[in-house]
């Protein structure tokens, strides 16, 4: 039987796609239409939310910051109310990563937006930033590009060639976070600036040697902080678009003429940028020093454009997640022949139950990756390798995957054998729990059927399901020569109960 649910529906001519970037300072949404193989932007929305201003040292979020965020998402949600979830991707960054209880905020955020909201790691954020800049300003063939993005809570550094990042890092120094950290009372002084510059510079030293050794042909700054600083430099006639090593000290001296942040008066500086410009200039000066930069051009593109092009790739032949899974298989020496057996069988099972269980193409993809990676933990130990594998998948930086996607992948690998831990799915949002348990059951059966690693095909394989009942039917002749499989199937009745299913192994 052919696999009918393996591939997401491709983007069609005229389809609208939306990307939302829930940044620590601003929320951005970009909407584009797919025409003649290209993305044509039809709308942009931006609101200053300042989530990082509401973050306390214990990971709590003030009620005011949360309400600003949710009100903005509600307005964004109205604009994309008619778009299906598969055409929308909303990603949260540093501030949400730091929350003590991010799930509580995400539930409220999804309700306000009307679409799922995911969290990405700092390194994945860096990859998407680079992708956005590369598409907006295609790099010259064979040249390397350094991209720096100063956000509200973190700064991303990426070196890449063509459309692929080579090095990517996310460091905890952003324009809002640095303003709050070094000028908490709003007072400005040269001594405070010097001390702050030394502190951030020391933190940037963790990447400076590696990045300078790798080298780049051009440097680009993305997002609002660089755009604001560039405009100020132009208004002050310090530079003509690019930010230079000569211009920055002069800009800093002009900024420090104010004794307080509220008194900063620089040409071209907007009112909404004034409270955080000191932290932005501070971080940028530290970056120039650490990397010995002479000039930084400015791109209007950033993570939101990267999300859009990544979304397009997910529905085509350029899904970064496929490449990442293949790299993991190679890195950890996974038995790809056995993984292929499990993958083929789990997709056969998936096809039979996708309708009654309301599973979608994205679910098939997740199953495919879980099948390929289910033995990844063997690199550590055979004893409890499913637990080791889950840990590796949840805590690694895997390009293309959001945190929730990695948590789903980890949950499937964690629960594919032996007893299912009651904690296996606790990291997942409630909206994914039913699907996760169903996918886990399918993977368990596929792994069990191939426990012997034999090459013989399973000619008869039928799975009948309703909401909480599963019946497996195999060729009696096939079963009669496999007593171990019979015993495993009988034992599965107890394990499946912990997933919420009544399993009938079809051994009568």
Keywords:
six-stranded mixed β-sheet; Hypothetical protein af1432; elongated; about 500 residues; Nucleotidyltransferase, domain 5; 14 strands; 3 domains; five-stranded mixed β-sheet
Tell me about this structure.
With 508 residues, the protein is an alpha/beta fold. The protein has 3 domains: 16-119 and 307-312, ATPase, nucleotide binding domain (Nucleotidyltransferase, domain 5, 2-Layer Sandwich); 138-300, Nucleotidyltransferase, domain 5 (2-Layer Sandwich); 319-504, Hypothetical protein af1432 (Orthogonal Bundle), CATH 1.10.3210.10. Helix content is 47%, strand content 17%. It is built from 18 helices and 14 strands. It has helices spanning 63-79, 94-98, 102-113, 122-136, 175-182, 190-214, 223-235, 247-255, 277-291, 303-314, 320-331, 336-357, 361-373, 385-395, 403-414, 433-449, 476-480, 483-498; strands at 16-22, 26-35, 38-48, 88-92, 117-119, 144-150, 155-161, 164-171, 218-222, 243-244, 295-299, 461-465, 469-474, 502-504. A hairpin with a 2-residue loop joins strand 2 (26-35) and strand 3. Helix 4 (122-136) packs across helix 10. The longest helix is centred in the middle third of the chain and has 25 residues, at 190-214. It is elongated, with a radius of gyration of 26 Å.
Q: How do the strands of the widest beta sheet line up side by side? A: 8-7-6-9-11-10
Q: Termini distance?
A: 25 Å
- CATH architecture classification name of the largest domain: Orthogonal Bundle
Strand content: 15-25%
Mean pLDDT: 94
Which stretches of 5+ consecutive residues score pLDDT under 50?
Answer: 1-5
- Rg, nearest Å: 26 Å
Number of strands: 14
């Amino acid at each position: 039987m052919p696999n009918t649910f393996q591939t997401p529906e491709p983007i069609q001519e005229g389809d609208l796609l939306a990307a939302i970037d829930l940044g620590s300072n601003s929320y951005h949404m970009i909407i584009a239409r797919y025409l003649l193989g290209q993305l044509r932007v039809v709308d942009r929305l931006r609101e200053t939310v300042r989530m990082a201003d509401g973050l306390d040292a214990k990971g709590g979020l003030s009620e005011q910051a949360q309400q600003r965020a949710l009100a903005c998402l509600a307005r964004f949600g109205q604009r994309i109310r008619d778009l299906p979830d598969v055409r929308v991707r909303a990603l949260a960054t540093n501030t949400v990563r730091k929350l003590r209880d991010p799930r509580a905020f995400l539930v409220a955020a999804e309700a306000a937006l009307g679409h799922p909201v995911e969290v990405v790691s700092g390194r994945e954020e860096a990859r998407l930033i680079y992708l956005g800049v590369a598409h907006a300003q295609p790099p010259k063939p064979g040249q390397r590009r350094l991209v720096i993005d100063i956000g509200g809570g973190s700064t991303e550094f990426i070196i890449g060639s063509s459309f692929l990042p080579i090095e990517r890092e996310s460091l905890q120094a952003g324009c809002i976070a640095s303003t709050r950290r070094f000028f908490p009372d709003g007072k400005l002084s040269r001594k405070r600036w010097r001390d702050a510059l030394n502190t951030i510079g020391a933190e940037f030293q963790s990447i400076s040697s590696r990045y300078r050794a790798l080298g780049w042909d051009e440097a680009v700054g993305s997002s609002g902080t660089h755009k604001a600083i560039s405009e100020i430099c132009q208004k002050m006639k310090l530079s003509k678009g690019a930010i230079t090593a000569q211009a920055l000290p002069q800009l800093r001296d002009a900024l420090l003429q104010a004794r307080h942040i509220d008194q900063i008066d620089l040409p071209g500086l907007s009112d909404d940028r004034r409270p955080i410009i000191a932290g932005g200039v501070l971080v940028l000066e530290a970056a120039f020093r650490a990397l010995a930069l002479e000039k930084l051009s400015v791109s209007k593109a950033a993570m939101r454009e990267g999300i859009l092009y990544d979304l397009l790739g997910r529905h085509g032949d350029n899904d970064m997640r496929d490449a990442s899974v293949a790299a993991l298989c190679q890195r950890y020496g996974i038995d790809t022949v056995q993984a292929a057996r499990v993958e083929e069988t789990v997709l056969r099972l998936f096809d039979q139950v996708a309708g009654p269980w309301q599973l979608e193409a994205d679910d098939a993809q997740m199953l495919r990756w879980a099948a390929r990676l289910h033995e990844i933990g063997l690199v550590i130990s055979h004893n409890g390798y499913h637990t080791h594998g889950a840990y590796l998948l949840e805590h690694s930086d895997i390009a293309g995957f959001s945190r929730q996607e990695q948590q789903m992948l980890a949950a499937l690998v964690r629960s594919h054998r032996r007893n299912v831990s009651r904690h296996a799915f606790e990291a997942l949002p409630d909206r994914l729990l039913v699907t996760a348990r169903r996918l886990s059951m399918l993977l368990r059966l596929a792994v069990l059927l191939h426990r012997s690693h034999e090459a013989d095909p399973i000619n008869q394989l039928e799975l009948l399901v309703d909401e909480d009942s599963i019946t497996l039917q195999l060729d009696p002749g096939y079963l009669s020569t496999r007593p171990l499989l019979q015993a495993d199937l009988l034992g599965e009745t107890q394990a499946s109960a912990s997933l919420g299913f009544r399993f009938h192994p079809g051994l009568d």
